[in-house]
Structures are given as structure tokens and as C-alpha cells.
């Protein structure tokens, strides 16, 4: 996956400045919401996708809108006023508890639009972008205790290497981790611009590149702060267990880690056996086939959409349907 080409931006987007929902036509086609159904939007954001889903559900349907960001949830409430929406402020990894508290036994569709929203990117004080100086925060849920600055200043060098490797820095991951640990011994790394300048001084970038060298580092920290991949695994597991027959799960992802986790989960739900990790490990039994994967390969935005909304360029859509 390639990071977005906009300097200071990140690689996961829920909406543009105009709140244009990414791949809306494809989302509606694969989620296929029908009047009277119950659909879960696990990443409500500003409510752009949710509005289109609500229009399909009609007055007898129900949308359960989950959002951990209080500012985004407030915007969604305004946008979706008058529609049959149950608003929940929580992390989608807690789907089991959310369904239990709402007395929901089964749902007809579950939607995820992963990553960080344009609103979060363009609100400087949230610390997701290095366009303007701000505290190095990156918490999607501001009730969390740990910020990106905490990780940068406290995380072991080996752990920093791991998260940078996962974000695609390759052989430069260790060099960047070493530079961070050396810098923080002199003084704490506390702001977005301070961290971005450190990365830029450490990681060589080809002259032709349009991507700021700190883009992947910001992305790596954001994913670590919010424990995004583990949360996605937990949420997809819970979503699958609550899907009724023919219910669909649709995932929009913007990074190889997100897309890889979605692909693995869908393959498992479709009954595909995980290969042994070593030649000596016995082959595990094939899981039960509960879902059919609707997207043999992930769908990507059209050229027209990318031109209209450059922040959609790294989006990938995967979908699966309950069959058993």
C-alpha cells in the first residue's frame, strides 16, 4: 500500500473536507441495506456513509452508529437528526458488549471505514498531522491515557523498530528508532513538528517523492496509540457472530496492515485453513465455512473519484456475506 501523496496527511480517511464519503456507490452495493433492516456503522465519523445508509433503511429500519471520537459523534448527531439512529460512543472492538447492552441478537449488515478522518487530520490540536505545530497526541478517543508523545518518549527501542517495520520503513526502521531514543535522552519529543523534523533528518527520501518522510511514522504511531489492528480483529470476530443469514460485512481500509487483517479474517470465516508457520507444525483443521467472500480482490476507487477526492487514493474495499 502506498501512503497518501498529500504532504502532512495520513493514509486513512473517512471523509474529505467536503465530507464526501469514500467509495459510496461500492459500499452501498456490497452492504445492500434494505428497508426495515438493522445495520451497524462501526466508524460513524461525520455520518457521511451513515446518511446514505439511513436513506436506504427508511423509517422502519435502524442504524447503530458507533464512534469513539466525541467531536465526530457530535457532528454525526447533527447530520443524522431525524433518522432512526442509535448513537454509541465506544471503540468498535467492544461490539459484543454494545450488542448486549442494546439487546441486539442479530444484525443485517456491518460497515467499517477505517483510519483517521479528514476532520481529525485538519484539527491541528488533535496531533494527527504535521502541517501545523501541536502536541503529539493522535488519540482517536481522548479518554485514552497514552498519547503518541508517551510512546515516542517511553517505548523501548526494539518496540519502536517493530512498529516502524510494520509501516514499511524496512531497513530504515532501526535507524529511526535509534535516532528517537538518542534525541529523547537530551529532551522529550512533544510536538508534531519536532517529531516530523526528526524523521526528515533521519530518513532519506528520493528527490522525486511527493510523500513527506514522516508520513509513515505518523501513521505507525497512530495505529499503535489506538491499538487499531487488534481492535479490528476483535470487532470482525464479534461482527461475524452477530450477523444473520445473508448479512454482509463491508470494510474500507487504507493501509496494508488493516487490509491484511481484514483479508485474513474473511478467509478464516470462509473456511480457508491457515498454513502452518513452520514445516514441523501440524496442519490445523479447516475452520467452519460461515461466510462467502464477495470480493475476490479488494475494490479500489475509480480514477474519477481519486481526481475528485485525492484522499481516497489508498482505499480498499472488501466484503463478505453470511451463508451458514
Key traits:
single chain; 324 residues; alpha/beta; Rossmann fold; DNA polymerase, domain 1; seven-stranded mixed β-sheet; 7 strands; disordered N terminus
Description:
The protein has helices at 24-31, 48-57, 70-79, 95-101, 118-122, 148-154, 157-166, 173-186, 192-202, 215-225, 228-242, 256-269, 303-308; strands at 38-41, 62-66, 85-88, 107-113, 243-253, 291-293, 316-322. It contains 13 helices and seven strands. It starts with 23 loop residues before the first helix and ends with a strand. Helices cover 40% and strands 13% of the residues. Helix 7 (157-166) packs across helix 8 (173-186) and helix 11 packs parallel to helix 12 (256-269). The chain has a seven-stranded mixed β-sheet with strand order 3-2-1-4-5-7-6, sandwiched between helices. The protein is α/β, with parallel strands linked by helices and 324 residues long. It has two domains: 24-118 and 228-322, Rossmann fold; 145-225, Putative methyltransferase TM0872, insert domain (DNA polymerase, domain 1, Orthogonal Bundle). Residues 1-18 have low confidence and may be disordered.
- Ranges where pLDDT stays below 50 over 5 or more residues in a row are 1-18
Strand content: 5-15%
Tell me, what is the CATH class of the largest domain?
Alpha Beta
**What's the structural domain tally?**
2
The secondary-structure class comes to alpha/beta
Number of alpha- plus pi-helical segments: 13
CATH architecture of the largest domain: 3-Layer(aba) Sandwich
Query: Which strand order does the major sheet show?
Result: 3-2-1-4-5-7-6
Helix-strand pattern, N to C? HEHEHEHEHHHHHHHEHEHE
Q: Number of DSSP strands?
A: 7
Rg over alpha carbons: 20 Å
Mean pLDDT: 88
Please name the CATH topology of the largest domain. Answer: Rossmann fold
The residue fraction in helices comes out at 25-40%
Main sheet attributes: strand count, strand direction, barrel closure: 7 strands, mixed
CATH superfamily of the largest domain: Vaccinia Virus protein VP39
Give the overall silhouette. Answer: globular
- Gap between N and C termini, in Å? 33 Å
